[in-house]
Amino acid sequence: xxxxxxxxxxDSERDYDAIRSAIKGEPELPDSYEDWLEAAQQRxxxxxxxxxxxxxxxxxxxxxxxxxxxxxxxxxxxxLGAYTITRVCKQMSEAKR
Length: 97
Known about the structure:
Layout: E1 5-9, H1 13-22, H2 33-49, E2 54-58, H3 61-71, H4 77-95
Parallel strand pairs: 1-2
């Protein structure tokens, strides 16, 4: 089974702004939610159109911050990716029960 390409996803401008404030100076997080959303939707559509399996993983700022504290990670784009993978693995593990 092909593993999906994971996309961290923000449901609101408030959530996006909270993450962006915690992760300063990251080029993958443009200045505005609208710019991020447009680029993310475009990339998601491009990949799925070519047959790549993709999955959106919604990130809640409070949960991400708590996970970083518990894991002793700084909030960064790298830890955001790790958090996304961890969330999906946990969901898959729970689904197998």
